[in-house]
Automatic annotation (TrEMBL):
GO terms for cellular component: mitochondrion. GO terms for biological process: isocitrate metabolic process; lysine biosynthetic process via aminoadipic acid; tricarboxylic acid cycle. Signal peptide: none annotated. It catalyses: (2R,3S)-homoisocitrate + NAD(+) = 2-oxoadipate + CO2 + NADH. Belongs to the isocitrate and isopropylmalate dehydrogenases family. GO terms for molecular function: homoisocitrate dehydrogenase activity; isocitrate dehydrogenase (NAD+) activity; magnesium ion binding; NAD binding. It comes from Tortispora caseinolytica NRRL Y-17796. It comes from the Eukaryota. Pfam families: Iso_dh. Its EC number is 1.1.1.87. Keywords: Amino-acid biosynthesis, Lysine biosynthesis, Magnesium, Metal-binding, NAD, Oxidoreductase, Phosphoprotein. This is homoisocitrate dehydrogenase. Residues 18-362 form the Isopropylmalate dehydrogenase-like domain. The keyword Phosphoprotein applies.
Length: 366
């Protein structure tokens, strides 16, 4: 999965690692231990862990969602990190902002990489990666509320797209597409894709300046780089959603601005059965944070039924971006075997297994 550029960045990574663990809120506290257990079970890595605070619960206790200590430890001591989940209130809470959004900005983790892949024999064939720009778009959170001349309330939000951010997300998406093709060829892996494909998602037919800049920059990066082996496509975001559900096999790597990438990747989880299966990694030039795509799920918190697979796969994805593909592949293989056998599935997958039972089964397969 990791791009060649990032692989070079991480090439000096020691086989002795220090990983930050940030459980966050809700079921994050129940699934992050699964990532830790899997890393410990690999056996060929020496891993030290440091537990760090962040989240809405921490904010309610201390007034801070992302402590400076957490940020400093990640910057100065850790090789990578796992982040569980965050509870984001749906109404404004004075002084609070999402710690994972802040981490992405402060550590310059500009790419959110979200693979969505079905296990052979368990449903329709799906094998795509959504590469979401992580630092701008509407997620810059520059909003204002004011009274119009007629006395009614108006809320506005700024959507910011830059050439710099668009270019680097296009580059990493193209490199991921090339790398996926190389892995398929080297492993003789059966695949629904005969060649690497990049699909640029946008809404430039309406947002001609902001999304237009994203689209034009991605196209320029493709045309001016060494990507002739990659098929290049563009897709308006609303028709992208339609096609993704109708013919997911048409997509290999999809690159999108922040908001569209967020929506598309959550929607794509339905193609494989559950958000509890879908991993992600927040990636920059030299650091990666594995993060399951699901939320804090307060309705099932404390019941020991949260699906740990998204976190376990996120752990493997983090290792890929740390240039440890063999260890990542072992984790993926154990997870796929669990899903293919389908005897121990959590309730979100139609089963009755507990979090603990699924974790123990995957550890056994490792």
């Amino acid at each position: 999965m990791q791009s060649s550029r990032l692989a070079r960045t991480f090439a000096t990574a020691s086989r002795s690692l220090k990983i930050g663990l940030i459980p966050g809120d809700g079921i994050g506290r129940e699934v992050i231990p699964a990532g830790k257990q899997v890393l410990e079970a690999l056996g060929d890595l020496k891993v030290d862990f440091v537990e760090l605070d962040a989240g809405f619960e921490h904010f309610k206790k201390t007034g801070t969602a992302l402590p400076e200590k957490t940020l400093e430890v990640l910057k100065n001591e850790c090789d990578g990190a796992l982040f569980g989940a965050v509870s984001s209130p749906t109404t404004k809470v004075e002084g609070y902002s999402s710690p994972i959004v802040a981490l992405r900005k402060k550590l310059d983790l500009y790419a959110n990489v979200r693979p969505v892949k079905s296990v052979e024999g368990t449903g329709r064939p799906v094998d795509l990666v959504i590469v979401r720009e992580n630092t701008e778009d509407l997620y810059i959170k520059e909003e204002r509320t004011y009274k119009a001349a007629d006395g009614t309330t108006v809320a506005e939000a700024i959507k910011r797209i830059t050439e710099t951010a668009s270019a680097r997300i296009a580059k990493i998406a193209l490199e991921i597409a090339q790398n996926r093709a190389s892995v398929r060829k080297a492993s003789s892996e059966k695949s629904i894709h005969s060649k690497p494909i990049l699909t640029v998602t946008h809404k430039s037919n309406v947002l001609s300046q902001s999304d237009g800049l994203f689209r034009e920059t991605c196209r320029a990066v493709y045309q001016n780089g060494n990507y002739s082996d990659v098929e290049y496509n563009e897709q308006i975001v609303d028709s992208m959603v339609y096609r993704m559900f109708r013919e997911p096999e048409a997509f290999d790597v999809v690159v999108a601005p922040n908001l569209y990438g967020d929506i598309l990747s959550d929607g794509a989880a339905a193609l494989v059965g559950s958000l509890g299966l879908v991993p992600s990694a927040n990636v920059g030039d030299g650091f990666a944070i594995g993060e399951p795509c699901h939320g804090s799920a307060p309705d099932i918190q404390g019941k020991n039924i949260a699906n740990p697979i998204a976190t376990i796969r996120s752990t493997a994805l983090m290792l890929e971006f740390m240039n440890l593909p063999e260890q990542a592949a072992r984790i993926y293989k154990a997870v796929d075997a669990n899903l293919k056998e389908a005897k121990l599935l959590t309730p979100d997958m139609g089963g009755s297994a507990t979090t603990t039972e699924v974790v123990q089964d995957i550890l056994r397969r490792l």
